[in-house]
Amino acid sequence: xxxxxxxxxxxxxxxxxxxxxxxxxxxxxxxxxxxxxxxxxxxxxxxxxxxxxxxxxxxxxxxxxxxxxxxxxxxxxxxxxxxxxxxxxxxxxxxxxxxxxxxxxxxxxxxxxxxxxxxxxxxxxxxxxxxxxxxxxxxxxxxxxxxxxxxxxxxxxxxxxxxxxxxxxxxxxxxxxxxxxxxxxxxxxxxxxxxxxxxxxxxxxxxxxxxxxxxxxxxxxxxxxxxxxxxxxxxxxxxxxxxxxxxxxxxxxxxxxxxxxxxxxxxxxxxxxxxxxxxxxxxxxxxxxxxxxxxxxxxxxxxxxxxxxxxxxxxxxxxxxxxxxxxxxxxxxxxxxxxxxxxxxxxxxxxxxxxxxxxxxxxxxxxxxxxxxxxxxxxxxxxxxxxxxxxxxxxxxxxxxxxxxxxxxxxxxxxxxxxxxxxxxxxxxxxxxxxxxxxxxxxxxxxxxxxxxxxxxxxxxxxxxxxxxxxxxxxxxxxxxxxxxxxxxxxxxxxxxxxxxxxxxxxxxxxxxxxxxxxxxxxxxxxxxxxxxxxxxxxxxxxxxxxxxxxxxxxxxxxxxxxxxxxxxxxxxxxxxxxxxxxxxxxxxxxxxxxxxxxxxxxxxxxxxxxxxxxxxxxxxxxxxxxxxxxxxxxxxxxxxxxxxxxxxxxxxxxxxxxxxxxxxxxxxxxxxxxxxxxxxxxxxxxxxxxxxxxxxxxxxxxxxxxxxxxxxxxxxxxxxxxxxxxxxxxxxxxxxxxxxxxxxxxxxxxxxxxxxxxxxxxxxxxxxxxxxxxxxxxxxxxxxxxxxxxxxxxxxxxxxxxxxxxxxxxxxxxxxxxxxxxxxxxxx
Length: 829
Ligand SMILES: [Zn+2]
Description:
Layout: H1 3-20, E1 22-23, E2 70-80, E3 85-96, E4 102-108, H2 119-122, E5 136-137, E6 146-147, H3 149-160, E7 166-172, E8 180-183, E9 186-195, E10 199-210, H4 214-217, E11 222-226, E12 235-240, E13 246-247, E14 250-251, E15 255-256, E16 272-281, E17 285-288, E18 291-292, H5 295-298, H6 301-310, E19 317-320, H7 322-331, E20 336-346, E21 351-354, E22 358-365, E23 373-380, H8 385-406, E24 414-419, E25 424-427, E26 430-433, E27 438-439, E28 445-446, H9 449-464, H10 480-498, H11 512-515, H12 533-553, H13 555-568, H14 576-587, H15 592-599, E29 607-617, H16 622-634, H17 640-647, H18 653-656, H19 663-666, H20 674-686, H21 689-701, E30 704-712, E31 720-726, E32 731-736, E33 747-754, E34 760-765, E35 780-781, H22 806-809
Helix pairs in contact: 8-9, 8-10, 9-10, 10-12, 12-13, 13-14
The structure holds zinc ion.
């Protein structure tokens, strides 16, 4: 740059500054930032995400050399109802699609979690957070520690029953024994020679185990006993999951994902094809992952006819009616039947069996060449009552309608909801759902509004899991949020499309209590280490995605990107970085700040509007500007001292001595001199023509210049949603993108210019509660009075042993009436 150019530039800069000088009455406080406390909230995520490679590329897609293993199973399993025991034989074909030679295979033995010496059992923290089901509470000085009766029941059940796998044999395809080593819930099988890339190996496992009682151990499967059914000894519902030894996943990002099963972190699994033969008492009805292939052997002609009718029915048709189920449940038989199922391209297999089941079904048609027709079905005992008859299968269909719109066509032939003791759990094509009706004295069955909401909600949620993670096969053992968070986000959409008056728990306002709490870890925490699983892995990611869709990207961009993610990773194994990258890549929006804030930190949203300044443009004409300044001066409140003296009619010195006043007594400090007028005229003369025009126009328009000052108290950077209310009663919405915080993440100022007559009366940040801002009171300028409650209370009676009147109490008679125990118990988990 040469000297002339530099001078010109200097001139322009200074001229520009002059024309923008604002005559402020108050000066906005400077944004403080020292070099020590600066944090770049917009730092790119590349330093945190894994380096893109040929398996997973930088776009978040499967890379050109993407691979995943495949495992096919042929299983024969038999249920011993009396002993509540499973005996099985499985033939496994392991396809090594990886570029590596494998000397051994790792198998998951989830049933071993119930062994006395399992890590899950021995590493349980008393009073700690984290186990599914029964719990304990630590005490303090005032309150004793607590152990729930449920926890005692669990301990008693574990002491009385031998649980965990009995691995009877592991053999290769010629019947020779293979060496194996059991390590907790895992088993290593040593191969005589390594499996080469693109080769496969066949082997068999013989196994057996005693089924756990679900209500005692609170697993994700097990049996439930109904002692009061007509049949002698009662009846059971059996829900079987994590029931066969299945391969650990072997992946490009972690090799063997052999992490001990501790109960919380769910499953990391491979896809494959299944043929399963389930041998049960002949009067049982079986529901399973897959399609029933021998209906002729297990269903009556009438039942098969009904199944056909159900395909095109408007409302669910009973395949097994209530009357038939009641007859099964009271009669009993010693005969047995084998139900055969096939399931292709699934990552797991679960099933349910009971003579208590009635069964209804309804076809779901979709615009898909591969799977134009899906059977939605429900299996439930009489305890399900009208609640199940009316809502279960309909909820299954509604879920497929909504989820398919956001991802892909439902890819399997069946979609099932089974009632049982597990509150809610998902497997390919089959889900377990808990809520029931309650038997009343008059023989009717009723349910609460909460149970109705629970049923619809849990069916939508669990069937939703058939998409995530059963098809979009994320690694649940590592990242709970990838299936629970995405699924909760979508179940919130399906739920609100069903009935938005039911609280679905995914609105931004539903997460603020958790967001401001101390007990938190980032969403990106390994599943078994997550504190407060519900808000961390379900609500927070769901609310975050809600905000991303409704506030930041808008529905069009979000839906396009989300669908792209779903379809890219359908029947494949995405990791968090694949999700983050795809959402950015497909939406075209840099979201690194969003993932960093919501997924990698425990910051919360709390944006405060601190001050609003109204300013007028300085005209530089001393005759105008000085008069304005005089106005401001004269509008200031006068001194109390002066006012009181005036009231007392105290005469001032200057009034008493008028003969010695001078120029300054008649002219104040805002008096304009010709010297100042000359300076103004010179300023105008020195200006470039365009500068003069700009200033002249600005002076003529005499707009309002408002500076809004915001502070970020929560740490999480977010867009600022503004509602501006004017003195004429009109309102206007303004959206300030999150990028306003990129250089000063703690404080920012925003200039808003309005026409002369359009004056601001009030400013509200996030008026619709769309950003999970934890303190809405500092969102108002000016501040408002906060409505809240106060309650009068009575002093509590003293309770200690010494405060009892034992002399009197001991005279009270002993009551001995025995109450009948209730028939149904509350199942809500
Ligand atoms: Zn879930």
